[in-house]
Specification:
Blueprint (H helix, E strand, L loop, with lengths): L8 E5 L10 H10 L4 E4 L4 H4 L9 H12 L3 E5 L7 H6 L26 H18 L5 E5 L15 H15 L2 H8 L26 H29 L4 E6 L8 H7 L2 E6 L1 H7 L4 H6 L8 H9 L8 E6 L17 H11 L4 E4 L25 H16 L9 E4 L2 H9 L8 H13 L5 E4 L10 E4 L7 H9 L3 E4 L28 E7 L6 E2 L4 E2 L2 E6 L3 E5 L5 E6 L2 E4 L5 H15 L10 E5 L3 E6 L5 E2 L7 E4 L3 E2 L4 E5 L4
Parallel strand pairs: 1-2, 1-8, 2-3, 3-4, 4-5, 5-6, 6-7, 7-8, 9-10, 9-11, 11-12, 12-19
Antiparallel strand pairs: 13-16, 14-15, 17-18, 18-19, 20-21, 21-25, 22-24, 23-25
The structure holds beta-D-galactopyranose (GAL).
The site of beta-D-galactopyranose (GAL) has 11 residues, from loops.
Length: 652
């Protein structure tokens, strides 16, 4: 992908190996005609590229790339390492990952390899070198994708002997001596002390829960293994295909490896957006699942756009797989409301995407995804998504330069936060990721732009910083919050753990006590229905009882303090969700001088330097509130279900 200053480009994921060669040129022509310009290929094609060990068949791939090139399309080529072929698995059976129950994750689908297996790492490097050597300087190949969706189907963690040995070495490098590890993990508890690193097992198959410090270390290690695997490919691609962008496709609501670390290795991070599937399989309320069944919850796509934008240094990101119709993998797989494919596309543009590419060009009538829609039906007739993609292509050229993002609120999220809350939730649903989503959603319902940033990112230019749940506070995170002069909202559990999962000296919020002077004397989690209600808000799920000289800003009818305030800093003592999040964040936005709008149900806004975009996720028509100014250049102030409008701001 060349960085385009002005316009987002559209593309699709294509599998030439699934179709007869004589239709490739016509496929390419139709892609071009629809307004697509980038085609991603090759991520699962190892068995066709190297049908026998060491025997490469490049002919078909040469012709496929040439067919696309001939139609004026550019190519994102992938390394095929997500699907090692059968002959490779048979030669190297211990490259297979083991699940937490110790069972092999066998051949016959995909992602069956263990990230720690040295032999497979060599094979992955070998095939990467072969593909990059062949096509690295092909004029059509403008970018590379490494592998495909690291971690899909729960594959980051492997409990194999290879992983165990690598984990021991990782622990040795991190702690230096086994005594230091015993001390840091508190292994004196239950006589868990080790005499050497070689005695350490993986944290699965224990009688009851393993030490949370052990789990945290294993999650960090597993993330590092993914990073090492990716880095090896990136290095080869940079050597053999210089000047091309390297990307990887991340997933939705997925935290098993650190995407900030991944983004640091890439030029562009992309992600795979399946809003209807995500609504169905993730813990949204039954009401939301019903109201948004054909649209997806209004914050699902935007949350990930704003999260992944913060993962690369240059803020470069895109959507490389966009749902074009029903998928096949959720509990229920409805068709999107007419208009949604166009809306999702344009919303990505409003958030700054470089590309939106639809998955997939044509529905494949066989194998696992035969029920997954494409832009074309299996009989090559247009599916509904194609017309919407074509319309989106027209909208993009009509809009022209939309300008960069407008900074309003920074929301801090780190991957190790989720590892802490996953390892030790303490109460059902207490997840740092979902706290981030809830706070994000509350802010977006007020019409604000939110950037999700890695803790430690300088906060200049923002009016407000929100820390929904950050148990481990790095020195960099602390320094950026100390230097920040805007409003700060800190949520429960923040600063509650040191690097190795211990409660910090002086109690939570630990290091953050230089930002908020107080001490968490006790934390409790609340079963459903056990609530502390105030005026128009209620504390649910989690409550930190705090000793502080700060002002008690919100107290429930029973006296429970739900929010503390000291100068520009608030500490929200209840879980940051629902009415409490809205109340606390609403107060902070007023103090920050941010203009908020109470948006109608299902409507969201996104402001860029030149435009304000409005998106209607509701199944009913919606009128733009009067406070939203600008001249409608696409759509109108009355939005149809699944409709959107682009308003040009008057100063431009
Ligand atoms: C993604 C994956 C694709 C395809 C798609 C189906 O997770 O990268 O290969 O399986 O889902 O929705």
């Amino acid at each position: 992908m060349h960085r385009l200053e002005s316009a987002m480009r559209l593309g699709c994921c294509y599998f030439p190996e699934h179709w007869p060669q004589d239709i490739w040129a016509e496929d390419a022509r139709r892609m071009k005609e629809a307004g697509l310009s980038l085609v991603r290929i090759g991520e699962f094609a190892w068995s066709r590229i190297e049908p026998e060990p060491g025997r490469f068949d490049w002919g078909w791939l040469d012709r496929a790339i040439d067919a696309l090139h001939g139609a004026g399309l550019e190519v994102m080529l992938c390394t095929p390492t997500a699907t090692p072929p059968k002959w490779l698995v048979d030669r190297m059976p211990d490259m297979i990952a083991l699940d937490a129950a110790g069972r092999p994750r066998g051949f016959g689908s995909r992602r069956h390899y263990c990230f720690s297996h040295a032999g497979y790492a060599q094979e992955a490097a070998r095939i990467t070198r072969a593909v990059a050597g062949r096509y690295g300087d092909h004029p059509a190949v403008v970018s590379w994708q490494t592998d495909n969706e690291y971690g899909c189907h729960d594959t980051v963690e492997s409990f194999s002997p290879a992983a165990r040995d690598a984990f021991r070495a990782w622990c040795g490098a991190r702690y230096g001596s086994v005594d230091a590890l015993n001390e840091a993990w508190g292994n004196v508890f239950w006589s868990m002390e080790y005499r050497s690193f070689d005695e350490i097992e993986l944290p699965n198959l224990t009688v009851t829960e393993a030490n949370p410090a052990h789990w945290l270390a294993f999650r960090r290690f597993s993330s590092d293994q993914v990073m090492a695997f990716n880095a090896a490919q990136v290095e080869i691609l940079r050597e053999l295909s210089p000047g091309r962008d390297v990307t990887h496709n991340a997933m939705g609501f997925f935290t098993q490896f650190d995407h900030h670390d991944l983004g640091a290795q890439l030029d562009v991070i992309t992600w795979d957006s399946y809003p209807l599937g995500f609504l169905d399989v993730f813990p949204f309320s039954p009401q939301d699942k019903l109201a948004y069944a054909r649209q997806g919850h209004p914050d699902i796509a935007a949350f990930h756009h704003d999260l992944y934008r913060g993962c690369t240094e240059g803020g470069r990101w895109g959507v490389i797989e966009q749902q074009p119709g029903p998928v096949n993998w959720a509990h229920h797989n409805p068709a999107p409301l007419p208009g949604m494919v166009r809306l999702w596309t344009m919303e990505a543009m409003a958030h700054g995407a470089e590309v939106v590419s639809y998955f997939r060009w044509r529905q494949f009538p066989k194998a696992q995804e035969q029920m997954h829609a494409g832009l074309l039906r299996p009989d090559s007739e247009a599916a509904p998504g194609l017309g919407e993609a074509t319309q989106a292509a027209r909208d993009i050229s009509a809009l022209g330069e939309i300008g960069g993002s407008v900074k309003q609120v920074a929301l801090l999220f780190s991957y190790d936060s989720e590892w802490v809350t996953l390892t030790q939730p303490q109460g059902r649903g207490c997840s740092a990721l979902w706290a981030a989503f809830s706070a994000y959603s509350a802010l977006r319902q007020m019409g604000l732009n939110v950037d999700i940033v890695r803790p430690g990112t300088p906060l200049d230019g923002y009016a407000m910083a929100v820390v929904p749940c950050l148990p481990i506070v790095s020195d960099a995170a602390l320094a950026s919050l100390e230097a920040f002069e805007g409003q700060v909202v800190i949520g429960p559990r923040s600063g509650s753990r040191d690097e190795d999962f211990a409660i910090p000296d002086g109690l939570a919020p630990g290091k953050l006590r230089t930002v908020f002077e107080g001490r968490v004397a006790l934390s409790e989690t609340l079963p459903p229905g056990v609530e502390h209600a105030g005026e128009g808000w209620v504390v649910t799920r989690w409550l930190d009882r705090i000793e502080s000289e700060a002002e008690s800003e919100l107290a429930a009818c029973d006296g429970t303090v739900a929010c503390w305030k000291s100068g520009r800093v608030r500490y929200c003592a209840g879980w940051m969700e629902g009415s409490l999040a809205a109340e606390v964040l609403g107060r902070a936005t007023r103090d920050a001088g941010l203009e908020t709008i109470d948006l109608p149900e299902g409507m969201r806004l996104r402001r860029t330097a030149n435009h304000c975009f409005a998106f209607n996720y509701s199944a009913e028509g919606r009128e733009l509130p009067a406070e939203v100014s600008g001249e409608a250049v696409i759509g109108s102030r009355v939005l149809e279900p699944a409709g959107y409008a682009a308003l040009r701001l008057s100063s431009h």
